[in-house]
Amino acid sequence: MIVGIFFLLFGISILLRIFFGWHIPIFRTFFALFLIYLGIKMLVGRSLDFSSSWRIKTAKSVVFDQGDFHFEKNTENHYSTVFGSSTVDLTHIPNDASAEEIHIDTVFGETKVLIDPKTPIQIRASAVFGEAKMPEGDSVVFGTLHFKTPGANPQEAPRVKVRANVVFGSIRFVPVSAAASSNTQKANTDESDDD
Questions:
Q1: Rounded CA gap, 66 and 62, in Å?
Q2: How far is CA 52 from CA 49, 66, 85, 181, in A?
Q3: How far is CA 94 from CA 53, 72, 120, 134, 178, in A?
Q4: pTM of the predicted protein model
Q5: Taking the CB of residue 83, how many other CB atoms lie within 10 A of it?
Q6: What are the boundaries of each domain within the chain?
Q7: Would you put residue 188 in left (φ > 0), alpha (ψ -120 to 50) or beta?
Q8: Could you give the CA distance from residue 36 to residue 32 in angstroms, rounded to a whole number?
């Protein structure tokens, strides 16, 4: 498999040099792709099995797949989406939750984050060649954007801080009430029970 990828890249490199005059260092490119493979392997925590599937899905990360994640109290809330799409539901953060910090990373993918406007949340979204869109429509493509939900008291520090990073993808923060989110979850559960 690796030898096949090498020959494929080598052939593409020759064609690009002939037709466009581009010189692509094939050995450096191959080494870079190998490092990317190792990085994905470290992020996901297991080896990529190319013979069965490229899709990887864990409790809080998605690679080449789709996923739905929900806030969990007293756990590390770090969600990752790479070459896929996901929905992160933050509408059920309990009122007694202590200071929580939630990290959401998206690389070459799409993430939709459901938030309850009544919950005091402070969002810091950073984008590089991607889009981070806030509930009121503000967005950033290259840089950092800050947002506080209407439920956040300006005199107090918000209990929940969301740190979102997006590279070559998009993160959208969508305001939804906790009741609406529960009804959607129940409807999805009922549909899967009918199958």
A1: 6
A2: 6, 17, 20, 35
A3: 37, 10, 11, 22, 11
A4: 0.64
A5: 18
A6: 2-44, 57-194
A7: alpha
A8: 6
Q: Which residues make beta-bridge pairs with 142? A: 128
pLDDT bucket at 46, cuts 50 / 70 / 90: low
CA distance 136 to 147: 9
Q: What is the C-alpha separation between 134 and 141, in angstroms, rounded?
A: 12
Partners of 128 in the β-ladder: 142, 167
Buried b (16+ CB within 10 A) or exposed e, 124-133: ebbbeebbbb
Q: What is the pLDDT of residues 154-179, one digit of tens each?
A: 667 667 889 999 998 999 999 987 55
Long-range contacts of 127-131 (CB under 8 A, 24+ apart): 127/165, 127/166, 127/167, 127/171, 128/166, 128/167, 128/168, 129/167, 129/168, 130/106, 130/166, 130/167, 130/168, 130/169, 130/170, 130/171, 131/166, 131/169, 131/170, 131/171
CA atoms within 13 A on the CB side of 128: 5
What angle (nearest 5°) sits at the alpha carbon of residue 133, between those of residues 132 and 136?
A: 155
Lowest mean pLDDT across 46-55, 67-76, 96-105, 112-121: 46-55
With 0-12 / 13-18 / 19 or more C-beta atoms within 10 angstroms meaning exposed / middle / buried, residue 185 is middle
